[in-house]
Structures are given as structure tokens and as C-alpha cells.
Amino acid sequence: MIIDFHVHLAAREHLEPIAAEFCDSFWDGRGDWDALLRPQAFDAYLEREGVDYAVGLPEISPRVTGVTTNEYVRERFGGCRRLILFANLNPWVTPRPDQEVRRLADQGFRGLKLYPTYQHFYPNARELYPLYAACQELGWPVMVHTGSSVFRGAKLKFGDPLFLDEVAVDFPDLTLLMVHGGRGFWYDRAAFLAGLHPNLYLEVSGLPPKKLLEYFPDLERIHRKVVFGSDWPGNPGIRANVEAIRRLPLSEPAKRAILGENAARILGLEAGP
Ligand SMILES: [Zn+2]
What we know:
Elements: E1 3-8, H1 17-27, H2 33-36, H3 39-48, E2 53-57, E3 59-61, E4 66-68, H4 70-77, E5 83-85, E6 87-88, H5 97-106, E7 112-114, H6 116-119, H7 129-138, E8 142-147, H8 162-170, E9 176-183, H9 187-196, E10 200-203, H10 212-215, E11 226-227, H11 238-246, H12 252-267
Parallel strand pairs: 1-2, 2-5, 6-7, 7-8, 8-9, 9-10, 10-11
Antiparallel strand pairs: 3-4
Helix pairs in contact: 5-7
């Protein structure tokens, strides 16, 4: 099973120009990513790319990348067989995020993504603890952006994976993913933390697959704690990423775990779509 844990569902019209241009830069001469963002077209695209399931993401970051609401994502993509929808909550916009996640769970969302670097909050802020408690109770995995970003307005200090150490200690049954694996200057601490906390995972979207062993020399040892993601459309070919991971000098069980088995366990998926 191949699972892509990180696909953005923002239409071009939702994005700030800098973010739209960033996506376009990967697609030069390869078609129009925005045209693929139709329910049936996207399911067919994932099938062509060899992806069984993908986690689809909204994003409410008005000061940096743009606004793609939970409502838009649910209305447009709720019927996609291959998409598992995660919600986003911006704690500055949603005063009682713990109540909001329960409402979103009733609507079919299956997890949460947080963007501390774009929404400017510390992931271990006490104000977020009721939200984490609600996610833990719902069995919702929580993805948290860690590491660098090229977008103007991002504040990198909020992306330190070390903040998730405290959250993992205080919510031992909550599944947490360090998105982008602490990209840039925190690879070592992200890998260490993934090895330390049973429910804290390293998610490798937005990183060149052929560099993964350079960034994470311990990848084989911690392979049950590593999850593949593409960061589509900031990356035109999901299949090419999967193939690049298959070419790494890792054991077959490690490749299967990273490309799908770990995600299937986190998401509670047993069979294909
Ligand atoms: Zn992303």
C-alpha cells in the first residue's frame, strides 16, 4: 500500500501569489496542477501516480500562504475515495478549537494539521492543551509543520521539533507527526525524538528522497517511525518520489513501512480503496 501523507488541496485562487508561484515553479511544462483539483480528476490522478490513499489538507494562514477552509475541502473532496481529509484550525481565528474539532469529526474529518510557523504560535502553548486532549480522545493524528519555509511571513522559531517533545510527554496516547522532519537545521533532533517517543513520527514531505539517508543516517533503525509524504503540488510527481525512496539502500520491510504501512497503522486503514 502506498500512502501519501501530505497533499495540499488549495486551489490557485486561495493562495497568496508567492505560494502559487512556488507551486507553478515545479510544474513548468508538466500541466496545470490547479486543473487536477476536481474531485474525480484528483482520484484518477492519485490512481495514475500509484497512490492508494492521500491525506488532503486545508490551510488557514491568511498572513503567509493563504486560506483554504475546512468547509471548501469537505464540500469539494468529501466524496473522493482515495482522499482522507484532515482539518486545519488556526488558534488565532478559532477561540475554542477543542469544540471545533469535535464538530469537524462529526463531518468526516480524520485528523488535524497545525502550521505554527505560518500561524505564529508555539506548539506546546498551554492554550492548545484542550485541543490536544480532544484529538487524543478522538484518536485523531496531529501533523505539525516543523523546520524551514521559504514563504515570507513564516517565523521559523515556531517550527522547532523540540516543542513536540513536551506535547508527546503530556499526551502519551496522541499520535503526532513532525512534518518535513525538522527541515534544514533540526533533522538530528527530529530523528532522535521519533526514536524516543512511541507515538511521535517523522514525516518526510518536502525533502528530496535521495537525500533522506544523508539527513537521517538512522533511517533504517527508526523505519517504523517514518512516514512518506509528497507536499503536492509543491512537487509534480508523487510516483517519482516513491520510486526514489525505493532506490535507497534500505531493507524491503523499511521501504514498505515508510511508503505505506506506518501510515496505514496511524490512519486505521486495512485494505486498499
Ligand atoms: Zn505542505
